[in-house]
Design brief:
Keywords: Membrane, Transmembrane, Transmembrane helix. The chain has 2 domains: about 70 residues, no CATH class; about 30 residues. About 60% of the residues lie in helices and about 0% in strands. It contains 5 helices and no strands. The longest helix is centred in the C-terminal third of the chain and has 28 residues. The chain is elongated, with a radius of gyration of 30 Å. The mean pLDDT is about 85.
Length: about 140
């Protein structure tokens, strides 16, 4: 560990898991395969000692590479993670889809961008008005 004086080097499971996720996300799952196998073999104790963050990192690495997080080196990481916090709540059944018009989410506009043009027009009109007032003021000051 960094800062330790007489300690022998320790493997860095967390950074290895992060590297696996990075390789998998960039399309290099084949290059991450050896590291995933190493994590499966060696990271079980670290996940138990490291708590929920360690388990979550390994679950993320397993998911990114297509490995089974429920049997990762003989350990059910999902069960281990769930044991660290409140039990997962049951999800409600999906409600039936209502018929008829749906309320707008505010992300889509039905006016085809008309509001933007109104804003631009008002801004131009305001700018022209300010320019007119300034030019009239200068005319009054001239002899």
């Amino acid at each position: 560990m960094p800062g330790a004086e007489d300690a022998e080097p320790q493997p860095d499971f967390g950074n290895t898991a992060d590297a696996v996720v990075s390789l998998a996300a960039s399309g290099h799952k084949d290059k991450a395969a050896a590291s995933v196998k190493w994590l499966e073999k060696n990271a079980g104790t670290w996940a138990k000692q490291g708590g929920p963050a360690a388990s979550a990192q390994l679950i993320f690495a397993a998911h990114a590479t297509g490995a089974d997080a429920r049997n990762f080196g003989g350990t059910d990481l999902v069960k281990q993670l769930n044991a660290t916090g409140p039990s997962p709540a049951a999800t409600a059944l999906p409600s039936p889809t209502p018929s008829g018009p749906q309320p707008s989410s505010g992300t889509e506009s039905d006016d085809g961008g008309l509001g933007l043009w109104w804003l631009v027009g008002i801004g131009l009109l305001f700018g022209a008005g300010i320019g007119f007032l300034l030019s009239m003021r200068r005319k009054k000051q001239q002899p």
